[in-house]
Amino acid sequence: MSDQYLAGILVRETVDVSSTSPALGAANTLLPTLRQWGGQYLTAVNPSGSYAKGTANRSGTDIDLFLSLAENTPDTLKQVYDTLFNAISQAGHSPRRQNVSIGVRVNGWDVDLVPGKRQNAWTTDHSLFRRKADTWTKTNIDTHIATVRASGRLAAIRVLKLWRNQWGLDFPSFYLELTTINALSGTNLTLSGQVVHTLTHLKDRFENARVVDPSNTNNVISDDLNATEKRAISNAAGRALASNWEQLVR
């Protein structure tokens, strides 16, 4: 019954990812502003994040747009981030500074803009500004998408994202995705079993688990949360395991 319950929720939470989807339409309204901002240095604007990975839910859907700038872009990464924020603000929106992205609500949809500077013309590796640490990191969004899509854990990730949102937890999506994939490595469980197994990992091992970017092992994803934030997730996982399915996710 628990697997049927979760499967029904995931059907309800199915996201339209077609070329005519409302989320993509909202994102596309920003394109004129983005093109003016990036000018000749803007090489591509592509959906990324959960929308591209297949881990999005309708009730918590945002759409990430990865903004690829050429390697000869004269601005520093911090200037790239700041000028993008200013451009979105001057276009009449109310942007929010996040860690590597700038969030903005458009036509009822949350759009996260992730600007990155390509490292060279022969790679899809990019440098991103990390606002919280006031530094930069190398990453590869294509590798992120491929890693998650090939994991075979999309349904479990979607359930855990619903749990995160409904329980009001601060748990960055890519960190959650990699944690779920790592926790379930080598297991062969039903959907409900995968969720319980991952919550048990979150309760018992998450606070000390090191999670790294699959495209750059020097980029430690688990550093995105401090000890207090990790403990809150661990404690919430313990409470979730003591609850019933209707309390855990709805």
Compute the CA-based radius of gyration.
18 Å
- The helix/strand class is alpha+beta
The count of DSSP E runs of length 2 or more, i.e. the number of strands, is 9
Largest sheet: 7 strands, mixed
Number of helices: 11
Elements, N to C (H/E) = HHHEHEHEEEEEHHHHEEHH
Helix content: 40-55%
- Roughly what is the average pLDDT, rounded to an integer? 94
Q: What is the count of distinct domains?
A: 2
**How much β-strand is present in the residues?**
15-25%
Q: Quick summary of this structure?
A:
The chain has helices at residues 2-12, 22-28, 31-38, 49-53, 77-90, 141-149, 154-166, 173-183, 191-204, 227-241, 245-248, and strands at 42-48, 62-69, 96-97, 102-106, 109-118, 126-130, 135-139, 212-213, 216-220.
What does this structure look like?
InterPro entries: NT_sf. This is Nucleotidyltransferase. It comes from Hyphomicrobium denitrificans (strain ATCC 51888 / DSM 1869 / NCIMB 11706 / TK 0415). Helices cover 44% and strands 20% of the residues. It contains eleven helices and nine strands. Helix 7 packs across helix 9. The mean pLDDT is 94. By secondary structure, it is an alpha+beta fold. Strands 1, 2, 3, 4, 5, 6 and 7 form a seven-stranded mixed beta sheet that branches. The chain folds into two domains: 2-12 and 152-248, Poly(a)-polymerase, middle domain (Orthogonal Bundle); 22-145, 2-Layer Sandwich (Beta Polymerase, domain 2), CATH 3.30.460.90. The two termini are 14 Å apart. It has helices at 2-12, 22-28, 31-38, 49-53, 77-90, 141-149, 154-166, 173-183, 191-204, 227-241, 245-248; strands at residues 42-48, 62-69, 96-97, 102-106, 109-118, 126-130, 135-139, 212-213, 216-220.
